[in-house]
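To assess whether ligand presence alters the predicted conformation, the chain was also submitted together with uridine-5'-diphosphate-xylopyranose. Input:
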Amino acid sequence: MNIKKICCIGAGYVGGPTMSVIAKQCPDVEVTVVDLNQARIAAWNDENINNIPIYEPGLSNIVAEARGRNLFFSTDVDSAIDEADAIFISVNTPTKTYGSGKGQAADLKWIELCARQIAKVSTTDKIVIEKSTLPVRTASAIKNILTHNGNGVKFQILSNPEFLAEGTAVEDLLSPDRVLIGGDQTDEGKKAIESLVEIYARWVPRERILTTNVWSSELSKLTANAFLAQRVSSINSLSELCEHTGADIGEVARAIGTDSRIGSKFLKASVGFGGSCFQKDILNLVYIARSYGLSEVADYWEQVIIMNDHQKHRFVNKIIRSLYNTVSGKKIAFLGWAFKKDTNDTRESAAIYVADGLLFEQAEISVFDPKVSKQNIYSDLDYLATRSSEENRNLVNVEDDPYEVCKNAHAIAILTEWDEFNTYDWERIYESMLKPAHIFDGRNVLNKSKLENIGFTISGIGN
Ligand code: UDX
Ligand code: UDX
């Protein structure tokens, strides 16, 4: 099949940028991104290109180029599905918060709804592509729904996992290390795989487009994220040892990272990894392993998450200990709330859990993040359901000026590695704070000796 029309269900962090880049690179292919959330679609269609709902460097230029030409954002899900040759499913798959598998298994409610809707409205043959990260063997569930509810229409299911990282999504999509496409190893399956290969081959060298069976593709996605997260937990575990021995984690990371077998990436010690994927995907892996009775495998990977939770708690405890074992009524300034720099995404951000830990000790928190809205910060805290939303609003204050946030604070905590933090007038900040003026650099981004010379007491991760 020659794919001429694409529909993508889900206009989020994955669907939005991925479809924008496909539309840019394939001007003759019509790409329609649909979403149930009307406000989100309206934002994607906003005349002012800076108001698109997702912040990613370089994305607004691409949307400006393709939108209205061959890139469309719509809430008319049914017609977009029926007109398309290929349908990407990019809806969210959060960890279940209820029932069996609670806290570990992926909630596939939205995926199932999408499959049912595709079955209901399709009148021509389709290729259905899993773009969302899913537990292994989800494709067979989707296939079951499609074949038992369709109108005699033929469906091929492919797995085409996303490897883009937020903050560098456009770059990752334009020159990916690899594109992975899994499909049935039948003649029809292979034809469907080839149709999707043809799309990516417009800009990705063929040798970087890997094709596999469906299960390998699904499992590779979970495995890639598990390995990346494991590196962060490994280096974070050693950061604690460094703090006790006088070794410096930055020096250790450099020393091991220059071994080409290990490599230098993902060795940055931090307050803990966040983001929508790492924790969820490892939990999925753990859940699958347990469901096959593989308890050693499950425990092995679960430890990556246990370590990450420990790193967040440790950061909170260090702040409390340094402030003479009480933070009650003390103002703590948070610089950064996003789970990493260059994104406005806050899902699973370490900042949320550090804030929760400090609020539990009755601290007063003041937050500044260059890209995250006040409303988003409150809804992250409300979502924890640890305290009422009124209490969250009383105890947490969000400002759009970093100097206001730091004024009269007992301590500053760096939660995100935004580049701009290094450009601040730190003497001015020091003057405005209570003394001793503490900085807890959860990302090791500030210039320690310069700040110590100003008078700050600064404590990083693993040094
Ligand atoms: C992604 C991936 O798709 C998922 O696999 C990954 O593991 C986590 O993140 P993302 O794009 O980041 O999802 O999620 P989100 O920004 O929440 O976007 C999903 C969109 O799907 C939302 O805008 C939601 O409104 C929409 N949606 C959800 C639908 O349109 N229909 C549904 O039935 C469910
Ligand atoms: C990740 C994967 O990298 C991507 O391939 C997949 O498609 C989605 O999940 P993302 O969550 O956007 O991408 O961000 P990533 O850059 O992987 O960072 C995840 C978290 O780990 C962040 O909180 C980051 O700050 C943290 N991290 C990363 C570290 O603490 N240290 C590091 O050395 C690297």
